[in-house]
Design a protein that fits this description.
mainly alpha; 17 helices; 2 strands; globular
Length: about 400
């Protein structure tokens, strides 16, 4: 009891220091970059390129099972949840600065789908090639033949649209014999389950992230989910037969487990980035709320979810700072543009390289090198042209909505 009280007191003290440090760093970065608070900052994309590349390579390390040239990164689970925080920040920036009205939501949704889908299709095609090279197509066809028509429809639609790819990781999709198909039988490119979670966040984001109070409610919902799941987790360990509990399913693959991280990213935009840009101080109520969230995270996080509370709070303040420092850096932007293609193509590349005979460190090194080379090709020859189309599409849609002035070229 005494130790928990001391930990809580230390957390409050740390919360003061982190809040002060984060605000100062964001202020310095704002002055260094001379950044204007408008949608011109989002012209160049999410930036934070080095951070995103490190996270993507950490996922490659996790799936290949060995370091890349001695680089181990963070664990793959934490890397994905960190990506969710970055996404929460950037999507909030976009919706608050570019797609500012309710009538522009459809344009936002279409644009985000176009952002994800081209590279996803390439990853899907590579996955099919990997299955053919590994002589596993017969197994997939056999699995398909033994499922119900509903399962067949799900397998086809989820792989073609990205929607619902998270479901096999936490729910049972039955085969003809009454058993459950695992995710490997259903999803051709398994890591893309997270894209389905991203799409669910995109679906609800326009109704939440433009208003800080709604984000606070969203964040509280995520905290409550993790608190309840943590309690069930420890009860399942303490009381035999209490409940069957799969930690990865509950704390990682299910969309509610990601709400906390999307919300933290969204709140960091309003609390750190936007208030600093507008030179507005944090109110007492907001400050108390932040300290309470830090304490809640610290008390709850006892190894039950993957991105630690200290890392989450660090990212909460670091993401806005890194965005300001890197948003106009072309090299960093290009490096960051490689992270998503690396994420969607690395897994089938690992399967092919294993079939050829790579293993251990050589597998990780070869997979990373091949993924980076292919990501450069995708970024230059696929995503760049698509991005130009997306920007023209957004300009036309917003101009049609009578807000032409907001989409004039940035000077």
């Amino acid at each position: 009891m005494l130790m928990s009280q001391l930990d809580a007191a230390a957390t409050v003290t740390g919360g003061h220091a982190i809040t002060w440090l984060g605000t100062r760093l964001a202020s310095v970065a704002q002055r260094l970059n001379g950044a204007k608070f408008n949608r011109c900052l989002i012209k160049s994309g999410a930036s934070m390129g080095i951070l995103r590349l490190v996270l993507a390579l950490s996922v490659v390390v996790g799936h290949s099972g060995a370091p890349i040239l001695g680089f181990s990164g963070t664990d793959a689970f934490s890397a994905v949840q960190a990506f969710f925080m970055i996404s929460g920040f950037y999507i909030t920036l976009v919706l608050d600065s570019k797609y500012i009205s309710f009538s522009q939501n459809i344009t936002f949704w279409a644009n985000r789908f176009l952002r994800l889908y081209p590279a996803y299709l390439i990853g899907l095609a590579l996955s099919i090639i990997a299955i053919l090279l590994r002589n596993e197509m017969h197994d997939y066809v056999q699995t398909f033949d033994t499922t119900s028509w509903m399962a067949k429809l799900f397998m086809v639609s989820s792989n073609l649209t990205m929607l619902g790819q998270d479901i096999p990781y936490w729910a049972c999709v039955h085969n003809a014999y009454g058993g459950c198909l695992n995710d490997w039988n259903l999803i051709l490119d398994p890591p893309t389950w997270s894209l389905s979670v991203e799409l669910m966040f995109y679906a609800v984001a326009p109704f939440i992230v433009r208003q800080p109070r709604r984000i606070a409610v969203f964040l509280l919902a995520g905290l409550l989910y993790h608190s309840l799941a943590s309690w069930l987790h420890w009860e399942a360990l303490r009381v035999p037969g209490f409940v069957h509990f799969d930690t990865q399913k509950v704390f990682y693959f299910m969309f509610p487990s990601s709400v906390l991280f999307f919300a933290l990213g969204a709140l960091s935009y309003h609390v750190v980035y936007k208030r600093t840009a507008e030179k507005r101080k944090l109110g007492v109520g907001s400050y108390v709320f932040l300290v309470a969230v830090i304490i809640w995270l610290a008390e709850m996080n006892s190894g039950t979810f993957f991105l630690g509370w200290k890392e989450a709070i660090l990212l909460f303040f670091a993401i806005p700072v890194l965005f300001n420092l890197t948003t106009h850096n072309r090299f960093d932007r290009f490096v960051g543009d490689l992270s998503y293609p690396i994420y969607v193509v690395h897994f089938p590349l690992i399967l092919v390289l294993r079939k050829i005979g790579f293993s251990g460190a050589s597998l990780a090194d070869a997979a990373a090198a091949a993924a980076i080379v292919l990501a450069v090709v995708i970024a230059v020859f696929v995503e760049s042209p698509v991005d130009k189309f997306r920007q023209r599409f957004a300009r036309r849609r917003i101009a049609h909505a009578g807000q032409v002035g907001q989409m004039q070229p940035c000077r």
